[in-house]
Amino acid sequence: xxxxxxxxxxxxxxxxxxxxxxxxxxxxxxxxxxxxxxxxxxxxxxxxxxxxxxxxxxxxxxxxxxxxxxxxxxxxxxxxxxxxxxxxxxxxxxxxxxxxxxxxxxxxxxxxxxxxxxxxxxxxxxxxxxxxxxxxxxxxxxxxxxxxxxxxxxxxxxxxxxxxxxxxxxxxxxxxxxxxxxxxxxxxxxxxxxxxxxxxxxxxxxxxxxxxxxxxxxxxxxxxxxxxxxxxxxxxxxxxxxxxxxxxxxxxxxxxxxxxxxxxxxxxxxxxxxxxxxxxxxxxxxxxxxxxxxxxxxxxxxxxxxxxxxxxxxxxxxxxxxxxxxxxxxxxxxxxxxxxxxxxxxxxxxxxxxxxxxxxxxxxxxxxxxxxxxxxxxxxxxxxxxxxxxxxxxxxxxxxxxxxxxxxxxxxxxxxxxxxxxxxxxxxxxxxxxxxxxxxxxxxxxxxxxxxxxxxxx
Amino acid sequence: xxxxxxxxxxxxxxxxxxxxxxxxxxxxxxxxxxxxxxxxxxxxxxxxxxxxxxxxxxxxxxxxxxxxxxxxxxxxxxxxxxxxxxxxxxxxxxxxxxxxxxxxxxxxxxxxxxxxxxxxxxxxxxxxxxxxxxxxxxxxxxxxxxxxxxxxxxxxxxxxxxxxxxxxxxxxxxxxxxxxxxxxxxxxxxxxxxxxxxxxxxxxxxxxxxxxxxxxxxxxxxxxxxxxxxxxxxxxxxxxxxxxxxxxxxxxxxxxxxxxxxxxxxxxxxxxxxxxxxxxxxxxxxxxxxxxxxxxxxxxxxxxxxxxxxxxxxxxxxxxxxxxxxxxxxxxxxxxxxxxxxxxxxxxxxxxxxxxxxxxxxxxxxxxxxxxxxxxxxxxxxxxxxxxxxxxxxxxxxxxxxxxxxxxxxxxxxxxxxxxxxxxxxxxxxxxxxxxxxxxxxxxxxxxxxxxxxxxxx
Lengths: 458, 458
Description:
Oligomer: homodimer
Strand content of chain A: 15-25%
């Protein structure tokens, strides 16, 4: 039989084809128009499991289906729950893509497509690593249980229900997710903390319809001006969030953690240059890494009101809308923050307009035990595959399932990022370095061996 | 020969057909896609003049053409310059129209179409009144010079250049424009004041492209939040505009004018109910009519940023844009207000974002001599046609040509509104009461006789 290393090498071209096949499917879970495509992506992932000889099925939900799969059982070996998602963010603004978002294209060693890194590419590494074990050793040394969902980008409730009702079949020792990033090029990382989120849509309504700004302007509250007032009230001039009790439950950061962040090789100038911003901005008293990972935020994600075409149009718009998300840190309660946000907005609403507050999903922040033997196993596997020891970091993004896995199944999660946070996840021209794809597959393959060898396993 | 009254009656059906023919042409001057339609509307108006036996031509400009026409000369009679515009506002949001904006439809005595009242319908009254004179008396008793332009809704520069270079052929005693409204149903009005305007587009730019709000949020200035801060800074909480020196040049309103406004039969509750607003809003210390007519404003006309589709999308948008217009009152200088607005916005711009300030057009406010004999002539003509004496009002909208006619040609303008300000001009389902269309034609026809009889004429 070929060695694991040789098998990884031999299968590399096929692994890339498998990725591109999946990236061609526009599985945009937020868009009703793409409902069929989302199912097609699920079916495609199912097929990849079945070709590996795994038991796999589509689990129907009221929304998009979940792909559930298990490796051939290995008695006495630990069980690892692998989570990933096959759905993707909307691809707009389409005109900013160099090549179409659902025609994966390889340029300079990177595959460009919506979902390349978030999360189709990263998720597939844990299928391909198992496939390499099957082909080289005829088995995987641990029991793998896969839950690959299709509603991650819309914060759907269905995964939660699935985890609850399937809990007996989801018993495991630890969970593994690759939906984060490396610390930087050539510097892999293990993520031990995540930010949570609350998301909402706020619509200020004024006159029944758009009105002539000359005939009516000045005598009624303009919903767009009123919305701006509401949004502006969310921060003070220094950048501190003004929602009442927003910071109330957050513990003071420890000196030790602040020092660890300071020692990371973070080049702020390069970070800002990469994203095209001239100066940092944020909550006073915190560094850029702290603002990204360890402090909460309140960001507008979109604004819509009145006339958006070319040239001027002299109207008072009938309504104005903002999409708003707050990123939360551990110990902030999403329900309380959402309620406080709504109360605050209503408290500053001018006369003559009304407010529709539409709450989307919420999820608390998450912190992982950095002393866990699973962390040490992952550390060794990554160091071997990448040739560099991983650093311990936090992540500013939200992975709601991590909180669900802990709450519903009692599982800690190894967050192992293979991509880069400059891969334009959620933006145009999302991409994934193919070398990172293959290193991720190798690290995953080594992780199965490391976990199988743990004294606490089984 | 039939009397003028009989002729007006006989020609009424044809006058309605002429209006509907013009309303079918989508002459949206702001839209490059409608350039051909704008010219088609000009050619159509030209044809209506030619069928009346008037000398008429299209005057080319770098933008949309101007229709220039004159009635058969009458020696010794005064000359009246009639101005109107054949271009219209954009029709969106299209889905809010009950019938398509460019398929004129008559329901309950009203014609519904974009431009029905602003300004195709009102403008045509002065062609149809002359046509009635031609058919009943073989001549119009005054010399009429028509300037019908196609760039009113975009504030183009070309009319200004035309008025300058054609000044020798535009000599007149007074100007007449119907691009305002009656005071209310059954209460005609003469408008003796207009607000001016400055219009601009403000774009706040942050990162090179949309970014993941979890990975980057909190560490860079969000352009949408920053735009909201800029817009919110334009007013204090009470509704007073905060642009420096905004109110500096405005004379205190006289007790006499405030009293005249108070005596107008204005039903504020009905006004608010009509437009669907629960409470008035505006500059403290002024009534709703004063806020609409005699006080300046600062309104957002549109907002655009980031994700505008269904559901949430967790990004920090790359940019955010607001279209902003200020309505000005007499004595405010548009250039100074525009410059002060730009300086103010730059002064409150947070670090890490940049500001593009795109100035559109500007025009000062206008006040008319209420003691003019032309005003008395118009008063009598309107009282005769409508059976009700007109009231003297001001208007919150802007008609830049009125200021140009005064500055370039030394002309005062009779602003005679036949429509209602509830006709949804600039909004969906714009309409014009056909009875008002015909009363406007009659008032215009009587005005030609009143002006011909003025001792100061000729």
